[in-house]
Amino acid sequence: MAGDSTKPMTLPSGPATLCFDKDDFMKNDFNVDTFVMDCRRRVPLETLRDDLHVYLKILRSAMIELINKDYADFVNLSTNLVGMDKAINNLTVPLGQFKEEVLSVTSAMENAIEAVEEKLKHRQKIKEKKASLQRLINIVQSVEKIEQLLGLSSKLEATPGTDLNGQLIERVATEFNKLQFYVMKSRGLPLVEQVKPRIASITSTLQYSLEGSFLEGLDHNNTDILRQCLRTYALIDKIKDAESLFRKHVVRPFMEEIITEDFLRSSSLKGMYTKVLEFIPKHCQILKDITSSSSPSGDVIRGYDFVVNAVWPEIISNIEARIPSIFAPGNPDIFHEKFTISMDFLSKFEHQCGSQASVKRLREHSSYQLYMSKWNLPVYFQIRFQEIAGLFENSLVIGFNKTTENEFYLTASHQMWESIYKCWQSNVYLPTLVHRFLRLTLQLLSRYSVWIDETYQKEVEKPSVSSGSRSDRASTPANNMVTSKVNGLDTSNQQPTIPEPEPITLGQILFLIADAEKSSEKIFPVFVEHIEPKLKSLDFDNIDSIKGAFSDSQESVLFNVPKFQSYVVQEVTNHCSLHLKQVADIPRHYRRTNREVPSKPSSYSTGLFKPLTMFFDEHKIVLREAKREEIARAVLQNLAEQYYTATSDVLTSVKKMEDSLKRLKKARGTGVSTGTLGMSDDDKIRQQLIIDIEYYGQQVETFGFSSSSLQGFSQLLELCKEAKGSMSQTATNPSS
């Protein structure tokens, strides 16, 4: 009973066979539903119920044991509490007195602390007033000392003819610097307001003396005087005044003489920039030596940058005011030339800065941002975009016209690459617009791919759907069907209408296929030769992703090539297969005509390959050997399949007719003649087909293929075997 109440209660252990852990009941987040669901995953509910009953009995037994163990304490609990109220009441009065004493001491301590803080604050105010008074005394003393050094009268007028040498000016500047510090700390005090006119007179006299000495040092290239003046300007925190003085008296007269429209017309923009750059080594070198870390004497006066803060703003101010015409983007060629020259000038100017820190200050200067913003690059690119993309878009209207160039066959393909090359020509491309020219290049390739796709949909897909076949739109009738396509509809009874554009020819499709494949082959070489070096020069870090974009363009250009090639194969196959209709006429030639046994190929066999041969002869220039083999193999395979169908139909028909005649003669009781009458008509038909198939195989080999390599021809040979097997003994051995 007297144990630690904070000690967690320990539950009695149960059998090891229980399906749950007894400690789960003592967890703060114990939840009955969660407990039951967790146990149910392992055992059935009946087992859980039985285990809970078992553990309940264990808990009851443990509780009884606990009560029995401390039984006396439980029974005497009420007896032990007798007199507790009286004891508590006896403690109330002493505790109240102790509380009053503590509060009294606390109040006394707080009063003492407040008194000490008040005295400290009073002392601090006295100290501040003493310091302020001392600063006022210092101000008066510094003013009087400076006036004495400068020779100023009590009426605040400089003594005429006062000659201040460099050392005296430096002494005055040191004292003036102290004066400025004291005035800043004592701002708003009445005495400071009283001496302000005297301080203003000192300031003007000092600046006048500094200006005179500074300009004298510049005129005579006197390093000592310049060093003292610049050190003094820095000491009195007037560095900007020195730079402005140099800009006004030295830089401005020079730039106003050089940066003019007349000088621009006579010496060109490049000549003007060259003359401007000559100013820096001629007039700024001595100042750069004094203020830069590369000073030979090692005595560097830091904080100045005359090239950035004096020369550059004056150059831009004069360019903007006197020759704004150089920024006009109306003529892109002139704009490109002027922009390139100007960026070259800017690069050379940065080299004159002398340090990376100076270059950084130049690029952060407001006049630098103004100068760059004057070049309207978006307008320039828009003009170039309309010029480049416009020419290409116009070429797509006559895209299938034959180009006079040797590399490509079609105007569209030639113009597309001319446009891409133009994007990266030195007289068009600007590094600042690299991302835009890169996007334009990809857009040109994409537009070319879209044009190829539109051509396929317009010239192949839709006409095929509407008319079922393009055979009527082939080139010339019969023998010259691959040169041009004409619409074979009879329009004699129709009203005159606006003629539709002539459909493209198979020859033009071959040109398109060849150009697309050539373009795909050129994409990466052109990228590596013309584009990638420019990206690397600009430290592009996404070159791999850009290569991926060009790879996608390459695939897009080639996407429709297999479809066009399949269409060409189908068109040539259709014209060749016209001759296969004559296969069905073979039975008519031999049945009941008493013709001789066939010994040579049918007339259709000799004309079967004529369209394919003419096709290759006419387009041998555009068809490379590999492409020729692909088309030839596909056409011959298609023809073999159609030939097999036609021949199989004829043989099936002959077989049916032969069987029908046999059944008829058998029904009439007449015998079948054995061999005295020679070869039967049906066998003549079979013999002719066998000769024609063998001739087909010979013709296939003239195109450079083994007849056995064509799957369709293998099926034809099987037909030959079946036909030979169906022929009578007389037919197979005519001599008997």
TrEMBL record:
Record keyword Lipid biosynthesis present: no
A Pfam short name: COG2_N
Protein location: Golgi apparatus membrane
Domain of life: Eukaryota
Chain ranges of the COG complex component COG2 C-terminal domain: 373-693
Composition skew (Polar residues), residue ranges: 476-497
GO biological process: Golgi organization; intra-Golgi vesicle-mediated transport; protein transport
Keywords: Golgi apparatus, Membrane, Protein transport, Transport
GO annotations of cellular component type: Golgi membrane; Golgi transport complex
Occurrences of domain Conserved oligomeric Golgi complex subunit 2 N-terminal (ranges): 18-91
InterPro entries reported in the protein's UniProt record: COG2 (IPR009316), COG_complex_COG2_C (IPR024603), COG_su2_N (IPR024602)
Region (Disordered): 462-498
Key word Transport present: yes
Predominant localisation class: Golgi
Topology term for the membrane: Peripheral membrane protein
The family this protein is said to belong to: Belongs to the COG2 family.
Name by which UniProt lists this protein: Conserved oligomeric Golgi complex subunit 2
